[in-house]
């Protein structure tokens, strides 16, 4: 059975002081408990050590929002997988739509970064998702298939278990607009079928597919109850510790 992954993506929010406060609030709720779900926070790079420290005595994990595809060298401003490992990060988000849109990350760049992550003993949360026009003109499946295949084509099946896919319809990110549980389930099932055709049904059945895009306490139960929704990648609601804790509590109450 796939274990839920409830992941917070703080984006460019929460510098060290705020990150420590937020992480302490989350840690306080889960301290000494072993949630059934895997719980992760991806803070900005500079805040990672503070979150790691706050989570020290808990089962909560820390990850990064981005990484470079080389291990070191003359890449001003960049961070490598080795550096993230040194900070005890376990996960890295790759291909977030904001990286694609504002930082020009192509499918090839996303594939190279993802490959680097999984071959360096970290796990990748690979984001895919269509824009509003693409949903409207019914090309959303093709767009997602293309984005996903660009990544999995570069990954050997021995690393498939280090992949998590996040379906994030761009029109639902930070907009308050959410995919309906049916729309999410339909796309998640489709993503799983691509993984199954590419590798095998057994491999596909073990890969978690998260939903991202305005997930909040009010819609989490319906979304997370869908058979192919294995967790959430949560932006806005993860910056409020009580909302984020509430989503984890909702995930804990769901049995599939
Ligand atoms: P949101 O962001 O929850 O604020 O919509 C999700 C994401 O971009 O990962």
Bound molecules: 2-phosphoglycolic acid
Q: Major sheet: size, sense and barrel closure?
A: 8 strands, parallel, barrel
Q: What is the count of β-strands? A: 8
Query: How helix-rich are the residues, as a percent range?
Result: 40-55%
Structural class by secondary-structure content = alpha/beta
Computed Rg: 17 Å
Identify the CATH homologous superfamily: Aldolase class I
Topology pattern, helix = H, strand = E = EHEHEHEHHEHHEHHEHEH
What fold name goes in the CATH topology slot? Answer: TIM Barrel
Q: What value does the average pLDDT take?
A: 97
The CATH class, by name, is Alpha Beta
Intertermini distance: 9 Å
The proportion of strand residues reads 5-15%
Strand order of the largest sheet: 1-2-3-4-5-6-7-8
Continuous helix count = 11
CATH architecture: Alpha-Beta Barrel
Q: What number of structural domains do the residues give? A: 1
Oligomeric grouping of the chains: single chain
Secondary structure layout:
Blueprint (H helix, E strand, L loop, with lengths): L4 E5 L6 H15 L7 E5 L5 H7 L6 E4 L16 H6 L4 E4 L2 H6 L4 H13 L3 E6 L3 H5 L3 H13 L10 E5 L13 H18 L2 H6 L1 E5 L4 H8 L6 E4 L6 H13 L3
Parallel strand pairs: 1-2, 1-8, 2-3, 3-4, 4-5, 5-6, 6-7, 7-8
Helix pairs in contact: 1-2, 1-11, 5-7, 7-8, 10-11
The site of 2-phosphoglycolic acid has 13 residues, from β8.
């Amino acid at each position: 059975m796939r274990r839920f992954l409830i992941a917070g993506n703080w984006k460019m929010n929460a510098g060290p002081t705020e990150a420590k406060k937020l992480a302490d609030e989350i840690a306080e709720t889960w301290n000494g408990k072993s949630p059934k779900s895997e719980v992760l926070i991806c803070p900005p790079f500079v805040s990672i050590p503070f979150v790691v420290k706050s989570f020290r005595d808990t089962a909560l994990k820390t990850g990064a929002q981005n990484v470079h595809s080389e291990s070191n060298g003359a890449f001003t401003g960049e961070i490598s997988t080795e550096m993230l490992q040194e900070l005890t990060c376990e996960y890295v988000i790759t291909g977030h739509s904001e990286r694609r849109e504002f930082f020009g990350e192509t499918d090839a760049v996303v594939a190279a970064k993802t490959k680097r992550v999984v071959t360096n003993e970290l796990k990748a949360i690979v984001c895919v998702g269509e824009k509003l026009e693409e949903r409207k003109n019914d090309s959303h499946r093709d767009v997602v298939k293309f984005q996903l295949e660009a990544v999995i084509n570069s990954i050997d099946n021995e690393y498939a278990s280090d992949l998590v896919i996040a379906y994030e319809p761009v029109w639902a990110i930070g907009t308050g607009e959410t995919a309906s549980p049916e729309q999410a389930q339909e796309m998640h099932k489709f993503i799983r079928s691509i993984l199954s055709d590419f590798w095998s049904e057994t491999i596909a059945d073990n890969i978690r597919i998260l939903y991202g895009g305005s997930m909040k306490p009010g819609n989490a139960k319906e979304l997370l109850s869908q058979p192919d929704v294995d967790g959430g990648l949560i932006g806005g609601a993860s910056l409020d510790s009580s909302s984020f804790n509430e989503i984890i509590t909702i995930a804990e109450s769901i049995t599939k």
